[in-house]
Amino acid sequence: MFLKDQWYAVAWDRDIGGKPVGHTICGEKIVFYRKRDRSLVALEDCCPHRLFPLSQGSVHDDRLVCGYHGLTFAEGGQCVHMPSQDTINPNAHIRAYPVVERYRFIWVWIGDAALADPARIPALPWCADPAWAFDGGTYHTACDYRLVIDNLMDLTHETYVHATSIGQKELTEAPFDAKLVGDRAVVSRWTLNVEPPPFWVHNWKSKELVDRWQICEYSVPSVITIDVGVARAGTGAPQGDRSQGISATVINLITPETETSCLYHWGFARNFETDDQGLTARIREAQGGVFMEDIDVFVHQQQNILARPDRKMMSFNIDAGGVLARRLLDRALQNSASKAA
Questions:
Q1: 116: domain CATH number?
Q2: SS3 180
Q3: 72: left (phi over 0), alpha (psi -120 to 50) or beta
């Protein structure tokens, strides 16, 4: 269910500091903290002495101190202090994880540490480009992470789940194109000559008819970027000229915790009014409200899945993007299992 030898987003850069923070990633409990020079440490969240979570401890002189008996661990996982004895048991060692800070997120490598190449972190240039304003948040979500992937690759749900913000009836009527492009699944939808929904009216500052686009791109294991925007109708946006409109990229990083829970990191990057910090905050609040509506859907789905193990979800035309994404993920999981066998 969990794809190993991958980088997974743990948290926003602002959410990991000098105090230990525990997270479960792909079923593995890991503790994170920053040293005084702001570099990151990721260790197994379990003291080998009495198996107490190290995330319940503290950091002293850049070393992790167990909150039960004071065993102290260096960033490589080796124990460097044991109370009431002069020698250190060499077996008192915990696993260290590769960890990298990039694109405003903290990433941890799950799998063989020898294969951890930071160049394999998904490229998210909008998150670090000063020409774009970017912010967002994280929701702990009580569902299988794949339900989030399904949702984001089928935006027809916006008509019903997000009717007061980004939804509109034309989304259920507009044709869309779902296809594999190399190792990615891409769904493109254009709604032409339509009234903009409330979110875009507010940010485009106009109720003129628009051509609206939504281009969702999935990459293994659980990264989805969505190119969105509106432009004055008939001014060439579908042909590539977006100069008469505004654009944004929605960042979605879904990190599995357990079989029925995940971390949903989301963000909104825009290339308009980028110096307006107030607008950044308002969009973050608005987008957070939109995504909370999705969380409610996921939780109810997961409850029904657990209550009805005899029932299987059905796929229709609108699910084409999610089907392609799952196909890529299943193929990667099968390849990983074959290598491990």
A1: 2.102.10.10
A2: strand
A3: beta
The pair of structure tokens assigned to 245 is 């409109």
Per-residue pLDDT, averaged over 34-54, amounts to 98
User: Which of 219, 228, 237, 213 minimizes the C-alpha distance to 283?
Assistant: 228
Take residue 160 and report the two structure tokens written for it. Answer: 């019903």
User: What does the pLDDT read at residue 339?
Assistant: 81
pLDDT at 110 over 90: yes
Give the pLDDT of residue 338.
85
C-alpha distances out from residue 225 to 176, 220, 231, 234, Å:
17, 12, 20, 26
Q: Can you name the residues that pair with 219 across neighbouring β-strands?
A: 184, 223
Q: 167: helix, coil or strand? A: coil
Residue 116 CB: number of other CB atoms within 10 A? Answer: 20
Angle made by CA atoms 193, 194, 196, in degrees to the nearest 5:
130
CA–CA distance from 72 to each of 23, 32, 33, 98, 132 (Å)?
20, 15, 14, 20, 42
User: For residue 179, what is the domain's CATH number?
Assistant: 3.90.380.10
Listed residue (201, 152, 193, 153) closest to 170, CA to CA? 193
Asked if residue 56 has pLDDT above 80, the reply is: yes
Cα–Cα distance between 333 and 336 in angstroms, integer? 5
What would the pLDDT profile of 60-107 be if each residue is shown by its tens digit? Answer: 999 999 999 999 999 999 999 999 998 999 999 999 999 999 999 999
Report the chain's C-alpha Rg in angstroms.
Answer: 22
Handedness of CA 110, 114, 115, 120 (dihedral sign): positive
Please tell me whether residues 149 and 181 are part of one structural domain.
yes
Domain boundary among 120, 155, 171: 120
The residue segments making up the domain with residue 142 are 130-340
- Considering 120, 149, 174, which residue would you say is the last residue of a domain? 120
